[in-house]
Amino acid sequence: MRNIGKSYKEVIALNDISFDVADGELFGLIGPDGAGKTTLFRILCTLIVPDQGEARVRGLDVVEDFRSIRKSIGYMPGRFSLYQDLTVQENLEFFATIFGTTIEQNYHLVRDIYTQLEPFKQRLAGDLSGGMKQKLALCCALIHKPEVLFLDEPTTGVDAVSRKEFWQMLKRLKKDGLAILVSTPYMDEAALCDRIALMQNGRILDINTPQKISEEFVGVLYAVKSSRVYDLLIALRAHPLVLSCYAFGEYLHVTLAKSEDSKELESHLQNQGFSDLKIHLVTPGIENVFMQLLQQTDEK
Amino acid sequence: MRQFLAFVKKEFRHIFRDRRTLLILFGMPVAQVMIFGFALNNEVENAGVAIFDMSMDYESTLLINHIDVSSYFFVDRTCRNIECIEDAFRTNTARLGIVIPADFGSKLWRGENPAIKIIGDASDPNQAQVLTTYAKAIIQSHLAERASVTIELPILRSTSRMVFNPELKAVYMFVPGIMGFILLLVSAMMTSLTIAREKELGTMELLLVSPLRSAHIIFGKVAPYWLLSFVNAIIIVLLGIVVFDTPMNGSVVLLTMSCLLFSLTALALGIFISARSSSQMTAMLISMMGLLLPTILLSGFIFPIENMPVVLQVVSNVIPAKWFIILIKGLMIKGSGINMLWKPFAILLFITVLLSIAAIRNVKPRLES
Amino acid sequence: MKEHPAISANNLTRKFGSFIATNAISFEVKKGEIFGFLGANGAGKTTAMRMLCGLLAPTSGSATVAGYDVASYPEKVKQHIGYMSQKFSLYEDLTVKENFLFYGGVYGLRRKEILLRLNDMLKRLDLVHALNTRVGELPLGWKQKLSFSLAMLHQPEIIFLDEPTGGVDPITRRKFWDLIYEAAHQGVTIFVTTHYMDEAEYCDRVSIMVNGVIEALDSPENLRSKYQAETMDAVFQELARGTITL
């Protein structure tokens, strides 16, 4: 069996969660803090036992066969969890050794990332910048040649440039056949995954490819802009045809039931004195869909 | 094995890169021995005595002179009434009062035992006790001397002799106590702190996810500290012998074994504590309140167990340090062999085994949820 | 009080040993402006922010916040600013009311006044029912709104927000920005750092720090056209790429 199946059910922290991840797939868990992402990771990494349901990693049960699973997974916890008082090299060496391997043996796996760290290999891990720490943690999770990689919010608190670099690395790893399960609160990163699960309050709201999820948007989406942003927001929210209205980059994103409504809205706004109004149709993204799903669950 | 060694290596790096840890590990034992050895010394040296001499004869003058020339006391004042002694206590010039009865000389000549009253200043009961004992010893030896001169017939007399530690040197008592204390501190507190630190940092998660077994993690943590505690024990014994002339009468092998055993007890305690606490703060508090305080108070280190209320005497039996101190005192000062000391050794061994089982049962291969 | 810019920094510099965390940065923030303060990790944002809040003395240069010099009158500065960081400033084991009474007391407000303002704020946030709930039991989004309200309790002229929306869902994030807009509308100056580039677009003006200096400072619109980028994210990538060496 080359497929990894995981299905899982639990109450409270996690509620009835089921999904599968294939080899060479980059699977994203997208959701805010408290959605249950970390709990899910800990169960899959055999750190905690589920109350209900079962989960399998590489065909092995996370409760029964936890020792065998531990040999073949790489885990990067949410917080930076390396030894701050050891140097870059000492950290990597330590993690290689406890997994029964050496840096030399598996150097090819981390070469791309480690070359960037090499100039600082004598530096204490605690003195590295956020992006560099993240790279080191990834190296340490990769050094024993895992077949499945679990990355719990690897890019939280990391600046936009380092985040982009990090995702490029994940893409390369995926090509080597690793199954990667990654969580993130950043919606823009969701589009970079093969498939994503949108999570909120311990539930999965939706699982699909980013493309398909974007297509699930109900209604039509317009981008509206004016120099008086705050007044515009108030005016839009007050209008009966507007289903929802949120700030979105430089524009406000307005959801309408049908495209004909936009003409009426435009003239209404112009009557209210928004002279520099710009309004145009936009293709909804994952974030729009997620917000719509959240709104729906809130209403329930 | 390679994994285990890597773990130990990492642990040593943590220890040697943190100045505070190093200071606690090696500064503490030295400082403790010095403090207890020099400062908290309750030996008697030149204590003031107020004497109310009612007989004022030749014999009483001889006695007073004898007390005055001893290195332990000097005569602060001679009184004419009992209130004068109290005054001397109040002004803190004298710490002991002696009342010589009016018939002192005549009784001595008749071969009777004169009743001398010794008054201690019980505002410091421990010291009063010690001073009284010293004074008694001096008076008794004086009486014995005089009695042999004044009458031919030897009289029955009771004398007390301090054995093993004739000069009543307090530091001899402190060396075993400090050893127990330091071994407990280094082994129990430091291990519980380092394990709690891994939990706090989140590195425990990574270690658990690795193929390392719980036993690897535990022994990897324990080994370096076991070694360090042992080094500490040696430092303390050497300090005791070189600086304070503590005797070393017993078997070195037995001493080594006792130290290793007690470190193990402490390590098991440390692991037990860390398994139960999630942060360094909790681990620290539990070690302080749950281990160090009872050890100082109930092990016989500072306060003699015989003087405690019965309840506390019973409680003191479960304090491992109590048995360790008995062992070390027996070994170093009395020079007893295993035939005399097998009982405390067996009890300590029993406690250690119990604690180890409890500790290992409490360490789980998963995070607590 | 006479008109002054909300924040004005003049060659503000801070060195840690030989390392220059912020290197002679100068900028001005107008009253009622939403000012985005962006930069990669380690670019010197936190250092600059700490100096402006009167927590860290500048090595050289000067800055005035709410008209007071940060080096000479840090206490005055603190009276006139509010501060909220990603890590919650609320005590988890106290109720909402107790938290507000405590912080209000710190700023020398009277009990009556605190409760009046708190009531007002909770009404607007639709959280009146949470008054006597322990903060620890509240959902993350609420906590964030309450932290913001708390920072606003003493009616500061300027409010500093250090990554206020980390880790919350997109709706909560939007709702949080609604609060920011509302505050700005009332004339409060907002100084905000964030890693979400779409949030940079919500600001009136944005500065981007790279290696201790401000590389760009303008409205998002002008920055986009200057760097011929479609989004602020692209602008940021352009400016900060290849500069992270630590």
Structure description:
The complex is a heterotrimer of chains A (300), B (369) and C (246). Chain A has helices at residues 37-44, 66-72, 88-98, 107-117, 130-142, 160-175, 187-190, 210-215, 229-238, 261-271, 286-299; strands at 4-8, 17-21, 26-30, 56-57, 60-61, 73-76, 148-151, 179-184, 195-200, 203-208, 220-225, 242-248, 251-256, 278-282. With 300 residues, chain A is an alpha/beta fold. Chain A folds into two domains: 4-209, 3-Layer(aba) Sandwich (Rossmann fold), CATH 3.40.50.300; 218-283, Alpha-Beta Plaits (2-Layer Sandwich). In chain A, helix 3 (88-98) packs parallel to helix 5 and helix 4 packs antiparallel against helix 5. Chain B has 14 helices and four strands. Chain B has helices at 2-17, 19-39, 58-69, 82-90, 104-110, 125-150, 170-201, 203-209, 214-244, 252-276, 280-298, 310-316, 320-334, 338-362, and strands spanning 47-53, 73-79, 96-100, 117-120. In chain B, strand 1, helix 3 (58-69) and strand 2 form a beta-alpha-beta unit. Chain B is elongated, with a radius of gyration of 27 Å. Mean pLDDT of chain B is 81; it is low at 152-162. In chain C, strand 9 and strand 10 form a beta hairpin. Chain C has helices spanning 45-52, 74-80, 96-106, 111-125, 140-152, 170-185, 197-201, 220-226, 232-240; strands at 7-16, 19-29, 34-39, 60-65, 68-69, 81-85, 158-162, 189-193, 205-210, 213-218. Chain C has 246 residues and is α/β, with parallel strands linked by helices. The model of chain C has no long low-confidence stretch (mean pLDDT 87). Chain A binds chain C through residues 31-35, 120, 128-132, 156-164, 185-188, 200, 229-230, 233, 246-250, 287, 290-291, 294-295, and chain C through 39-43, 139-140, 163, 166-172, 174, 177-178, 181-182, 184-185, 195-198, 201-202, 220-221, 231-233, 236-237, 240-241, 244, 246.
Number of helical stretches of at least 4 residues of chain B: 14
Which residue ranges of chain B are poorly predicted, with pLDDT under 50 across at least 5 consecutive positions?
152-162
- State which percent range the strand residues of chain B make up: 5-15%
Question: Could you tell me the strand content of chain C as a percent range?
Answer: 25-35%
Total number of distinct structural domains of chain B: 2
- Rg of chain B from C-alpha positions? 27 Å
Provide the CATH architecture of chain C.
Answer: 3-Layer(aba) Sandwich
Helices and strands of chain C, in order, run as EEEHEEHEHHHEHEHEEHH
**How many helices of chain C does DSSP assign?**
9
What sequence of helices (H) and strands (E) makes up the elements of chain B? HHEHEHEHEHHHHHHHHH
| CATH class call of chain C | Alpha Beta
Largest interface: A-C, 38 and 39 residues
Overall mean pLDDT of chain B = 81
Report how far apart the termini of chain C are.
44 Å
Quaternary state of the chains: heterotrimer
From the spread of the alpha carbons, the general shape of chain B counts as: elongated
Q: Mind summarizing the main beta sheet of chain C?
A: 6 strands, mixed
